[in-house]
Amino acid sequence: MSAILSVRDLTVSYTTRHGRVQAVDGVSFAIEPGRTLALVGESGCGKSTTALAAMGLLAPTSGVISFNGRDLTGLKASELRAIRSEFGIVFQNPYSSLDPKMRIRDIVGEPLSATMGLSGRQLTDRVVERLVEVGLGPEHLRRYPHEFSGGQRQRIAIARALASEPRLLILDEPTAALDVSIQAQVLNLLLDLQELHGLTYLFISHNLATVEYVADGVMIMYRGKIVERGPTTEVFAQPRHPYTRALIDSIPKLDPRKRDRLQPIVGEVPGPYDMPTGCAFSSRCSFKSPMCEKAPPERAISEAHSTACYHPFEPETLT
Amino acid sequence: MLVGSVKAVRDCSMVIGPGEIVGLVGESGSGKSVTASACLGLVPESGRVSGSIEILGREVVGRSDAELTDMRGAKAAMIFQNPGTALNPFFTVGRQLIDIVRRQRKLDSRSARDAALLALKDVRIPDPHTALDRYPHQMSGGQLQRVMIALALACEPALLIADEPTTALDVTVQAQIIVLLRELAREKNLAVLFITHDLGVIASLSDRVAVMYAGTIVESANVTDLFDAPAHPYTCRLLQTIPRLGSGDTRLDAISGQVPDLSRLPPGCPFAPRCEQSTDICRSQEPATRRLGEGRDVACHHANGAADSPPSAVGDVA
Questions:
Q1: Looking at CA atoms only, how far is residue B3 from chain A in angstroms?
Q2: ipTM strictly over 0.90?
Q3: Fewer CB atoms inside 10 A, N or C side of chain A?
Q4: What is the mean pLDDT of each run of 10 residues along chain A (319 residues)?
Q5: Do A256 and B197 touch (CB under 8 A)?
Q6: DSSP for B224-292?
Q7: Which residues of A make CB contacts under 8 Å with B?
C-alpha cells in the first residue's frame, strides 16, 4: 500500500546566538492509510516540531515531505492551504486551542467555510453531524468553550479537526491534559472515529501505555533522532535501544509490589549546545563504547523493527 | 464576585506517621490540593476551614498568620507542581536557600551557606557548589524540582506536602524524583503527604493511599490492599480505566459521565450517577465512612468483601 504521508530526511535547525540547534535531525517515516503511527519522546526531543513540519506549518531546513504522493516542500502558501483541508490537527490543551470568543458552531464550522465555502443551513448541518459523532448534541451549537469541561472541549477540538473530512489527523498529546477517566473516553472515541472514517493518525505522545493502546507502529525519538522504530507491541515487549528500555523502566507500574523495578536513568537529556559527539544518548548510556562516538545508523532487526544503536539488546536478555 | 459557597472538601480525616508516605489521589477538582493547602493554613481568604489539623501536636486551624509563618518550613513544608514558577527568577538558588535557612534557623551567613550546600547535596544535585550560584532559568525542570525539595527540607520539617511534584516532569525525571523522595523519607524519617492524579506514582511511592472524589475521601487503605482489592466502585473503575503497558487491551474501560459540579452535588453518594452498582439508597443517602479492616476505610453502601485481603506489614498507622 502506498503511504498517505511520507517524510524523508527531515531536518529542522535553528541558528541562535550560541550556535546551531538541531531540533530534528534526519527523520524519515511513512504512514499507510488507515494506520496509526506514534511518535514518542520526552519534552524537547523534536516530536512536535516533526509533526508541524510534516503538516507544512513550519518550513524544514531540508527534507522531503509528501502527502498523497505530492511534495509539500516548496509549495506556495495558497497551494498548501488547499491541501491542508485534507489533514487536521488536535492539540494537547483544549483550553488554549479553542477561541474563547467563538461559539461552537463557528469553531467547528470555520474549516468548512474556509476550505469548502459552506455557509448557513448546510454548514450548520455538517457541524451538527460532526458534533454528534464526537458525542455532543446539537444543543451545544450556540455555546462558548468556557461552558464545557476539559473532556468535552477536546471532543469539540476533534470535531473541528474532522470538519473538512480530512484523511489524516495529527494528534499532538491529545489526552495529556485530561483526567484519566476522561482520557479513556477520548481515546476510545478516537479509535471509533478512525474505524468510521478510515482515518490515518500520527499520534504524538510521551505516554507509552496510551501509545500501545492506539498505535500500530511506534517511533522512539531522542534529541531529534529516531532511535528505534517498529510494531508497537514488539517494541514495547522487546525494546532494543537502551533509551527505549530506560523509558519503559521509568514508568511507575500499577503494582506496589513491583515498585523496585522503577529504575531511573542517570543524568539528564543533554542541552542543544552540549551534545555528545556521535550517539546523543551515549552520555547517559551504560553500554557506551568507543564506537558510540560515531553516530550509529539505523539498522534493521527484523522486517519492521530497527534501531540506531551499536549495542542493541538481544531479545533473550529481557525477561 | 461571590455567588455562593462551595464545599470543596467535606469531612476528610487522615493521620500520617513519621517516615510514612501517604498518597492522596483524585482527579481535577476532587479537593486534594485544597486539603493539602489547608494543612499549612494556605486556603485563600475567602475559604473557611473547620475541623482540626495538627502537626506534631500543634493545631493549624485558627492560627494567626505570624504563627503559621513560623510553622511553615520548620514543622511542615510544601512543594508544588511547577518548580519554575515557585522559585524567584531574580535570585540565585543559593541566595533563596540561604534566606530561608537564616530566617527559620537563625544561622549566621557562613553556617547558612553550609546548610544550603548540605541541602543541595541531600537532594543529589550534581555539583552543588556550582548550583548555589545558578539562577533558576539555568536549570532543567528536574533540577529545579530537586532545588524545591532542598528548600522545603532545609529547615528540617517533620512533614513534607508534595502537590503533584512530578506531573510537569518527563517520565525519566519523574522516576528520579520518586526514588529520591522514597530515600529521603527513609533517611530523615520524614512524613510525606503526596498528592497526585497518577495511580502509578502512588503505587511506586506511598505506604498508604486515600482516594478522593468530589471533595471526600471515598476509600483509604494500605497501598498493596488498595491495588490488590479496591473496595470502592470509584477506585475499581479508576484502576480499570488506566491503559497499562503490555496489557494487550483493545478497548479501554472508560468511566461514563463526568465529575460532578461541587456547587450542585447530587443527593446521596457523589459517585452514584456514574456508578454501575448504585441503588436507591445511594441516590438518597450519602454513605458514611465504614471500617472494612485494619487501616481500611470506605464510604460506600455496597462495598464489602474486599476487607478479606490480609493486612500488609508496611506503614500501618491508624
A1: 17
A2: no
A3: C
A4: 90 90 94 96 91 89 92 85 86 91 95 87 94 94 93 95 94 90 92 96 94 96 96 95 94 91 86 88 94 94 94 72
A5: no
A6: HHHHHS--SHHHHHHHHHS--TT---SS--PPPS-PPPGGGPPSS-TTGGG-TT--HHHHHSPPPPEEE
A7: 42-43, 149-151, 179-185, 187-188, 191, 206-210, 212-213, 233, 236-237, 246-259, 262-265, 268-269
